[in-house]
Design goal:
This protein is α/β, with parallel strands linked by helices. It has one domain. It contains four helices and three strands, in the order H-E-H-E-H-H-E. A three-stranded parallel sheet has the order 1-2-3. Helix 2 links the parallel strand 1 and strand 2. The longest helix has 10 residues. It starts with 12 loop residues before the first helix and ends with a strand.
């Protein structure tokens, strides 16, 4: 996997695929960029590890992102907690 949590705009899927990787691990794209993200995953046949970051003290509220992640059908889900 390639991407290391960088935002979508800094990920070059073509180069990642050419380097022999089969997927990317990046944070959830904004709603505005979801369509482009889905296209890039299909176009370059890349798997997806989703990063969901919860924020203290409202971890439960932060998990609302998981619903959006599920729609992107990731291969895996990684959760990270961030202290404010």
């Amino acid at each position: 996997m390639r991407g290391h949590g960088r935002p979508l705009k800094k990920i070059n899927c073509k180069d990642i695929k050419a380097a022999g990787y089969d997927g990317i691990d990046v944070p959830l794209p904004t709603a505005q960029h979801e369509g482009e993200f889905k296209f890039l995953l299909r176009e370059y046949d890349l798997r997806y590890i989703a990063f969901v970051q919860t924020v203290c003290p409202d971890h439960h509220g932060s998990f609302a992102e998981v619903t959006r992640v599920a729609e992107l059908r990731p291969n895996h889900l990684a959760q990270h907690k961030r202290l404010q």
